[in-house]
Write a structure and sequence with these properties.
The protein is built from 4 helices and 11 strands, in the order E-E-E-H-H-E-E-E-E-H-E-H-E-E-E. By secondary structure, it is an alpha+beta fold.
Length: 242
C-alpha cells in the first residue's frame, strides 16, 4: 500500500495509507473433483515455433501447409503447456532478440482521436508521498456532474494508520459527504500538478469522495486521466451570438 501525504481544509497534513479497492466475488469456481480453481501461467509457444520462424524453414507457403498437417512442426510436446513461475516482461527487437535500451514515445490525440503530437515519454517522479502534501484545492464537483465529465480509470481507498489519523480522515469524509461532491486533489506547491504514484507511471487527476455512517467512514480517491468532451464538428456552421 502506498503512502499518501494529504492535507485537509485547514492546512493540516498527515501521512496515511492508500489501498486497492477489491470487491469479493461471491461466485467460486470448482474443478471436476470439487477443489478450488486457481490461475496458472502456461507456456503457449516459443519464438522458434511462430509463423515467421516456420516460414523460413519451408520453401513456400504450400510446403509449410503440408508440414503443418503431416508433422506438426509448430508444436513442441516437450515444452508447450509447462507452468511458468517468476516471469518478467522483456522487450525484443525485429530480430527477436532482447533489447536492453529502448526509447519510449507518447502520442497526443485530439477529441476526434487524431494524433496531434508525438514526443518522448516523460518519466515523472512520484509526488504523493513527498514533503509537500496533496492540497485541498477547494474545488468541489457534484457527484452527478463528475460521473458525466470524467472517465475514472481506478480508485484507491484512503485509510488511517492510528487514532489521530482516524479523526483526521473522518472529518474530511464527513465534510465531503455533507457536500455530496468530489474534491479535486492536486500535487505540488501550487496544488495544480497531477498525481504520480510511481516513477514513470501515468499521471492522474485525483477526486476525493467521502461517506460516513456514524463513527464509520470511507474515503475513496477516484483517478482519472481523461475528460469527456464533445468533438468539434468542422462542418458545423458558426452561430453569430451578436
Amino acid at each position: 500500500m502506498p503512502n499518501i501525504n494529504i492535507a485537509d481544509k485547514r492546512g493540516r497534513d498527515a501521512v496515511v495509507k492508500a489501498e486497492s479497492v477489491r470487491i469479493e466475488d461471491p461466485v467460486r469456481y470448482l474443478g471436476p473433483r470439487g477443489n478450488a480453481s486457481y490461475t496458472r501461467r502456461i507456456l503457449k509457444s516459443t519464438i522458434d515455433h511462430d509463423h515467421d520462424a516456420l516460414s523460413k524453414e519451408a520453401d513456400s507457403p504450400e510446403a509449410l501447409a503440408v508440414a503443418l498437417t503431416e508433422s506438426d512442426p509448430d508444436i513442441d510436446v516437450e515444452r508447450f503447456g509447462q507452468f511458468l513461475f517468476h516471469t518478467s516482461r522483456v522487450w525484443i527487437g525485429s530480430d527477436d532478440e532482447p533489447v536492453f535500451s529502448i526509447k519510449q514515445l507518447e502520442e497526443i490525440r485530439n477529441p476526434l482521436g487524431e494524433i496531434t503530437e508525438t514526443r518522448d515519454r516523460e518519466r515523472v517522479e512520484p509526488n504523493v508521498d513527498g514533503d509537500i502534501p496533496l492540497s485541498w484545492t477547494g474545488t468541489l464537483i457534484p457527484r452527478r456532474e463528475a460521473i458525466r465529465r470524467y472517465v475514472f480509470a481506478s480508485k484507491l481507498q484512503i485509510v488511517h494508520v492510528n487514532g489521530l489519523t482516524y479523526d483526521f480522515l473522518h472529518g474530511m469524509a464527513k465534510e465531503l459527504d455533507k457536500a455530496k461532491s468530489l474534491l479535486l486533489l492536486g500535487a505540488g506547491k501550487s496544488g495544480k500538478d497531477p498525481l504520480v504514484f510511481r516513477r514513470g507511471s501515468v499521471p492522474y487527476r485525483g477526486f476525493l469522495e467521502g461517506r460516513t455512517r456514524g463513527d464509520s467512514y470511507v474515503l475513496l480517491l477516484h483517478l482519472s486521466n481523461m475528460e469527456l468532451k464533445l468533438p468539434v464538428d468542422p462542418d458545423a456552421t458558426p452561430v453569430d451570438a451578436s
